[in-house]
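User: Sequence recovery, please. Input:
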């Protein structure tokens, strides 16, 4: 299961109701901050997420509305909050600009307040844990080295509790070992093999995030059949020419991509102040009904085939 919390959903400049691009994608204990527009740290506080375990930042591209928040975030880590490691992943062009921002403006010769790594990525797997991966793929926008990110759970065999119950396997470490593929010996001497309590192989949940992008034709190969596609919709079709000029998508284009690529749920973000949300939504839903327009602090849980909006529980202690 992946959880996504939108922290900023506005395009280019903030609006009264929308902050600049940023979202957190959570899988188990891992948190990925995807983009970090100006004002992100306040959104992190307001969302109740806090700063802990925000060790991985994935940058889609180097435009200012996606990176300026890194300066403030780092400044806060210098004085008020602690984190032992911060890895910022991005293309070379984005990292050059982030390097200038962090080392030229924020630090100016001071040591980073944590083990800080700027990690240059290329298309391919950038993160590989026991049960999920994150893959970067190229997207076409203004400037080189723009990336989308695909979060994928690995194929797994589900644990079948009814079978475990029938075999009278007590809860606890025995079941854990079976889930991780190890045979166990129970206290009564019986040996149980994982095959006895695991079901058929099941593909994992897949979620794709695409930041700013000007063309959909090359995206299908990377995002086809995902459970959720999060993608920008900066313009509406009436201004398709302007969308093309600035290398952004219209809501219609985003919906066309979803409809033609077997995508299950579409979440639009990077919304311009020039439109009403319901108009953007309406344009997309005409082509792909299973669309929502994200608002700041919207939270979705994504499981295989399923995307559920949840009420976010705000924590009073911001450092949790
Ligand atoms: Zn942008
Ligand atoms: Zn951009």
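Assistant: Recovered sequence (320 residues):
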């Amino acid at each position: 299961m992946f959880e996504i919390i939108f922290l900023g959903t506005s395009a280019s400049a903030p609006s009264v109701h929308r902050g600049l691009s940023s979202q957190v994608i959570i899988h188990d204990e891992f948190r990925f901050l995807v983009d970090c527009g100006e004002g992100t740290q306040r959104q992190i506080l307001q969302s109740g997420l806090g700063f802990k375990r925000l060790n991985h930042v994935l940058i889609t591209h180097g435009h200012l509305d996606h990176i300026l928040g890194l300066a403030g975030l780092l400044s806060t880590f210098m004085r008020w909050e602690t984190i032992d490691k911060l890895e910022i992943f991005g293309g070379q062009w984005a990292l050059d600009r982030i390097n200038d921002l962090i080392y030229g403006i924020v630090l100016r010769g001071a040591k980073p307040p944590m083990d800080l790594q700027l990690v240059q990525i290329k298309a391919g797997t950038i993160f590989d844990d026991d049960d999920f991966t994150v893959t970067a793929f190229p997207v076409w926008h203004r400037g080189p080295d723009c990336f989308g990110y695909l979060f994928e759970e690995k194929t797994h065999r589900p644990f079948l509790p009814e079978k475990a119950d029938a075999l009278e396997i007590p809860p606890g470490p025995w079941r854990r070992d079976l889930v991780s593929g190890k045979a166990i010996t129970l206290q009564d001497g019986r040996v149980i093999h994982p095959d006895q309590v695991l079901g058929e192989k099941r593909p994992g949940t897949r979620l794709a995030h695409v930041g700013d992008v000007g063309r959909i034709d090359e995206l299908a190969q990377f995002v086809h059949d995902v459970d959720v596609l999060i993608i920008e919709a900066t313009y509406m079709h009436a201004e398709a020419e302007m969308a093309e000029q600035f290398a952004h998508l219209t809501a219609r284009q985003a919906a066309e991509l979803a409809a033609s690529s077997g995508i299950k749920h579409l979440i639009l973000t990077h919304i311009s102040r020039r439109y009403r949300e319901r108009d953007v939504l309406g344009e997309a839903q005409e082509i792909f009904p299973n669309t929502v327009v994200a608002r700041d602090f919207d939270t979705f849980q994504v499981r295989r085939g399923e995307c559920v909006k949840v009420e976010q529980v705000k924590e009073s202690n911001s450092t949790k």
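The pocket of zinc ion (ligand 1) is lined by residues 11-12, 21, 63, 65-66, 212, 270 (CB under 6 Å).
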